[in-house]
Amino acid sequence: DAKTTQPNSMESNEEEPVHLPCNHSTISGTDYIHWYRQLPSQGPEYVIHGLTSNVNNRMASLAIAEDRKSSTLILHRATLRDAAVYYCILIHYGGSQGNLIFGKGTKLSVKP
Amino acid sequence: DVKVTQSSRYLVKRTGEKVFLECVQDMDHENMFWYRQDPGLGLRLIYFSYDVKMKEKGDIPEGYSVSREKKERFSLILESASTNQTSMYLCASTLLAERGFTDTQYFGPGTRLTVL
Lengths: 112, 116
Hints:
Number of strands of chain A: 9
Distance between the termini of chain A: 38 Å
Largest interface: A-B, 24 and 27 residues
Order of helices and strands of chain A: EEEEEEEEE
Distance between the termini of chain B: 37 Å
Number of helices of chain B: 0
Radius of gyration of chain A: 13 Å
Mean pLDDT of chain B: 91
Oligomer: heterodimer
Mean pLDDT of chain A: 89
Shape of chain A: globular
Order of helices and strands of chain B: EEEEEEEEEEE
Structural class of chain B: mainly beta
Helix content of chain A: under 10%
Strand content of chain A: over 45%
Number of helices of chain A: 0
Helix content of chain B: under 10%
């Protein structure tokens, strides 16, 4: 599976937007970009995913670079509940032989 | 909402004991997975199952076995617990077997197992 690179940690103020970057320069044409987050003492939680076009849902937005070698998860207004480790993962379409490879992710701290 | 539950949040066992970790999902999902999560190593897949009585090895199956007698229940068994199996164990499920790992995975809250 292709590898992703994320900053180890980021800080944000409450109510401000947060942009979490992810580099995936070796992405292949059929790799989906998935984001999960893990709150303290909980299992990972799905946030959003996309292939080529930008995506929006109730939790976040995903901006995908035109060359697909990077993407950005956008939390429009950070809340204290958004403090978590965010994982950017590439999943090969039809990849029943693959698995979710969670790297170290980005630990997001939100200050009141 | 999909709910994935795990039998225990915290478990302490002794070396050599047989340990059962239970996972139940309530949304008729076909795929179920067991991972372990360790600091610095991320999540690693132990076993997964795409149907009742079917199982596939993941990346680190040694020392573990699984059982899926009913669609909603997937059990992880540590035949003889060892201290290096101290870890956070996470169960997950996805809806459709043919979409494999591309489908959204729903995780349980995890079981923190300590083997003394």
